[in-house]
Amino acid sequence: MVDRKCVGCGQIKNRDELIKVTKENTHGDVIINHSNKIFGRSVYLCYNKSCIEAALKKNRIAKALKTSIPEDLKGRLLNEF
Ligand SMILES: [Zn+2]
Question: Distance, CA 1 to ligand 1 centroid (Å)?
Fold first, then answer.
């Protein structure tokens, strides 16, 4: 069991219960990572709008990934989950 921490609420959960957002190594693109085959610095979020909103509001994803988060990715996080 692999535990990860949500950057929204700070709860520790199983990786399968969290959305993974990765800055991929190859191009530096920030993506919603549904694959185990894409590697890079990653943050995790609950499948929960309040966690996503909190993380975006406090800029925690950008800080953790040390990059800016594209607007379209923010929109996808807020709309898809
Ligand atoms: Zn959370």
Answer: 18
Query: 21 alpha carbon to ligand 1 midpoint, in Å?
Result: 13
Ligand 1 mean position to 25 CA, how many Å?
A: 25
List domains and CATH numbers for the chain.
3-68 (3.30.1230.10)
Look at the block and give the residue holding tokens 């694959």: 35
Q: Render pLDDT for 39-48 as a digit per residue (tens, 0 to 9).
A: 999 999 999 9
